[in-house]
Request: fold
Amino acid sequence: AHAKLTVGQLKALQQASFGFLTSVEKVSGRSCYGLRSTLLSQAKAFLEQRQEQNLNSLAAALDCEKWSQAEVSLERQRGIDRLVSGHATVNLAGGVLLAAEGGDPANSSTAAAGVGTGAAAATAAAVATASLSSSPGGGGLTRKSSSGSSSASDVVVDGGARYKVVWSCLLLIEMVCALLAVASLFPLLATDVLTRVVELLRLFNSRATQLVLMAGAIHSSARLSKITAKHLALTSQCVALIMALLPHARHALQGLLPPRQHLLLSDLDRVKQDLVEHHERILSKFVSIVGEIVDSLSRSVGSTDWDRSGALATGAAASSSSSSTGVGGGGGGGGDALSSASSGSSSCPFVTDAIKNVSTMHKVLSAQLPPEQVQEIFSRIFEQLNRKVPEYFASVDPATPAGQQRVLDDVQYLCHSLERLRGVNAKNLNLEATSGNVSRMPGEKPPPLPPLFPMAGAGGGGGGGLFSSPKPKSEWPASEM
Reply:
């Protein structure tokens, strides 16, 4: 029955028991090891019960997660701010905690004895309200703000950085903050709390990988029809936020653990490494998506008659572009970024469709990710195009100088359009090898292709089909952004 108490009720019970135990030890002159062991066992049983509820709640939230952006209430924002500022483990005043959880305020003076008053109690009230919002029956954390405030922000702010997160990520952070508060109330449980925090973080990381990167959300309770780049971007933001908060949680636990147990904090370091790898796989996934798209579109390069008149080629390109790509409107600024040097558009469907799909990816990522991550992703995409585009044009052999010029104009159009993507520095985009392949006499043997090199951070696995109609090679369904 004691495992079903609230944190405040258990703390009051423990303080009363320890007061009685101390009196008995003074009178008898002997230590009551049996009673001390029983009280510790009761506290551990309480933590185990709470952890079981946390695991079940988090697993259910992830299974039902739609991977759409959630509101961040002011109450939750303040809880994150306290964690970042180092106040997550303020030793809570028992009376304030009881009042926050529906206990008897009349007993607050007894429960708070020896714990702290004044400013510490005021801070404890805030921590108790935000971090330990459990029901008297020991239920899980609630989705709504207990303060009833309707004010909310769309992002979580950590030291100036902004994150767009999903509901299950907010739930995880609340659970971690609640466990840190438990460790503050029961210092002897700090080692057990560390183990539980690591367990929750690993559950979130592994399930998020399965549901988004491995497209498991299509078959989960959420029943998503497809996994989009927006889902990936939000997952990336959640992982990035957890990585940003993890050092603060580590510091809080370090202050509660005895020095000889600080080596146990290496478990958190291993979790952080897992998160870093997960985040890297998501960034690489964006690059592999674009790679599969341009691979599927490259077939039109060899089938294009480069020697036809500009008017006929332009008309064929417009017709093919409207039917071959699965992306709707909103392709960003790629298509109108810069006209071809000769005819005002590209004569090859590959060029127009590649610009449209890359621009769509840019539009989605720019709305979800911070600029530095967008730059990192597109730097990798450009490195990939530097390798792939010359391969696509290696067999192109126009019979006329006009055809050769048309190829050069289209490559220039592709390059200049990508350079115009807003907020992206395309200094590493270099398609000169493509121009070298076609700036030769008709019938002349093309020079050897540049050496292949692995794309930085590759390893996301197959994942095309998010932007265009060709079917994917792996688990990804064909879909639009």
